[in-house]
Recover the amino acids of this structure.
């Protein structure tokens, strides 16, 4: 079964780097709001540390916020699932292709490497992260190669861990904003940081990175009930 890191774990597009740097900045400003160095260090160690990779790094390189908000769950088994990957990774698998994804034309094998036919071009696992939009390889695309796949060993599966399940896919914006919202909740509940201060700190980070918030990002009164009551 696949046991190693996901294919191209340390390969990031410019957009990937931008998103991870925003999250790293959010962690830093939230940590600065805690009451002392011990709390700051604890928050960063347990929750805030961001590793610049697709899978949050080896072990606990990336802390809980990155692993939960930005990455898919770790998976092992006889399947091409990534053992953690960015939630906006551009190749998903599902029973049927969802309406937000474009279907790959075919899935084949070349010398024990999966090959995805996309717009007439051959796309190998190491290049999947460069795809410009989300594609799906639905179940029926795998039938023709299933007998060969069952012969693969652990190393073969690890070398081809290049897709994520559709149920864990999220657009980049929702993942980054979930990171911020969870971060606000954590420093407010566990480190006695005023939620309004934490909320405003995240807004400054977004503005500094020229990030336009989605319509789904909560208003301040949804983060702090006391704010709505004028307390």
């Amino acid at each position: 079964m696949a046991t190693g890191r996901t294919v191209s774990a340390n390969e990031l597009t410019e957009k990937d780097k931008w998103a991870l740097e925003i999250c790293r900045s959010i962690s830093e400003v939230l940590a600065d709001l805690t009451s002392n160095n011990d709390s700051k260090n604890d928050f960063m160690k347990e929750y805030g540390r961001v590793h610049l990779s697709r899978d949050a790094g080896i072990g606990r390189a990336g802390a809980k916020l990155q692993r939960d908000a930005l990455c898919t769950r770790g998976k092992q088994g006889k399947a091409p699932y990534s053992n953690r990957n960015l939630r906006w990774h551009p190749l998903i698998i599902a029973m049927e292709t969802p309406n937000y994804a474009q279907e790959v034309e075919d899935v084949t094998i070349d010398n024990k490497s999966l090959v995805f036919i996309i717009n007439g071009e051959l796309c190998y696992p190491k290049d999947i992260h460069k795809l410009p939009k989300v594609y799906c390889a639905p179940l029926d695309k795998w039938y023709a190669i299933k007998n060969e796949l069952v012969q693969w060993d652990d190393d073969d599966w690890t070398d081809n861990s290049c897709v994520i399940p559709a149920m864990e896919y999220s657009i980049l914006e929702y993942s980054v904003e979930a990171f911020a919202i969870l971060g606000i909740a954590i420093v407010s509940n566990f480190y006695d940081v005023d939620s309004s201060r934490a909320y405003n700190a995240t807004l400054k980070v977004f503005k500094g990175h020229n990030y336009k918030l989605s319509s789904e990002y909560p208003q301040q009164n949804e983060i702090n009930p006391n704010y709505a009551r004028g307390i």
Remarks:
- Residues 14-71+171-228 form one domain.
- Residues 14-32 form the longest helix (19 residues).
- Confidence is low (pLDDT under 50) at residues 227-231.
